[in-house]
Amino acid sequence: MKRLVGTNKEISRILYEEQLALSQQQTDVDDLVREILSQVKIRGDEALRAYSQEFDQLAIQDLEVGDSLIEAAFAELDTRVLAALERAQKNIESYHRQQLEQGFEDQPSPGVIRGQLIRPIERVGVYVPGGTAAYPSSVLMNVIPAKIAGVKEIIMITPPQEHFNPAILVAAKLAGVNKIYQVGGAQGIAALAYGTETIPKVDKITGPGNIFVARAKKLVYGLVGIDMIAGPSEIGILADETANPAYLAADLLSQAEHDQLARAILVTNSDQLANQVQEQLEIQLKTLPREAIARRSIEDNGRIIITDSLASMFELMNQIAPEHLEIAMDQAYSYLDLVENAGSVFLGHYTSEPIGDYYAGTNHVLPTTSTSRFSSALGVYDFIKRIQYTQYSQEALAVVADDIRCLAYAEGLAGHARAIEARSQK
């Protein structure tokens, strides 16, 4: 990992410029993604089958994953994996049920009623990656909050495979997915956004994916809702001399193995700890099955930053605004109030980030590339709509009519004023 030296302002600028460079790489595929979106919009299922042949080298006739494949997945799945998925499901459900919102109504003055309705989104599409890394945990994280919100229909798409990872199909069934279709990439996002002969158009698309999926989601946003524009995975660790360097190295690599573009950043006030972590990274990389990916990530995007105080550490990390934030210190909980920007926080020496990825119940669909400055983890609130309502009686309108007319004319909108005047005249 490279070391960064300088003031917090200087380091923040360097990290920001590095982030911009990574973002620029993502836009290079936009022309291809636009063409894929256009072809699916025009040709529907025919285009989906053609792209499956081109990109996945599979000839797909039946786009829907049938019940027989799902039943076979249950029979094939290791019973220990099934039990772990079921326990994770319960934790995710218990956490997210606490996010349910209630509508409200008040009567601030005689003849006036105001309120807000909570309504679920009707149909949601969930993208689940395939290929080198299939994530049944992502199925649970996307689908369970939608079900708790009351979404009526959840469509899942995943890239076609000669043999599906059984855990993906089992997780979908456990979480309550209504239909599964084998289509991936930008073409899958297009199918969800526009609809085809087989795949219904949805109202919102969630779920992680590669660069083509991310760019496709951005390009269809507005026609449908999306959860976020996710960049490469990232972890930020705040650690002092009480931290275990072997633990820190393992946690940094847990994100680095996702993607060559993943970012792993350690901020510490201990030069000795920084050296020990550097040594541990090399030791652990040599035995990591995804060493090639993780090594490239650590060497290109990994950073160790040494500051002179705890206050400076937190100030810098809040500017970084990481997707995952670990506070590897004694009494870590006492520092929680110092956190301003982070997708999800992991406190103490034994709360490794993968606990949140799989099991604790907090969501692992998180804002990346510093967007935790203004956005949050996926939750039940992402699958609902808030509908306002208002009622004024004739008498209540008469009390406020002059104020409304005054404001309308001040904005040069006589039609607005006349709509009030028409009801105010005897």
TrEMBL record:
Binding site for NAD(+): Y127, Q187, N210
Protein EC: 1.1.1.23
Active site: E323, H324
Catalytic activity reported: L-histidinol + 2 NAD(+) + H2O = L-histidine + 2 NADH + 3 H(+)
Pfam families: Histidinol_dh
EC top class named in words: oxidoreductase
Ranges in coiled-coil conformation: none
Protein residues bound to substrate: S233, Q255, H258, H324, D357, E411, H416
PROSITE patterns: HISOL_DEHYDROGENASE
Family, as annotated: Belongs to the histidinol dehydrogenase family.
Role noted for this protein: Catalyzes the sequential NAD-dependent oxidations of L-histidinol to L-histidinaldehyde and then to L-histidine.
Name of the protein in its database record: Histidinol dehydrogenase
Organism in which the protein naturally occurs: Streptococcus oricebi
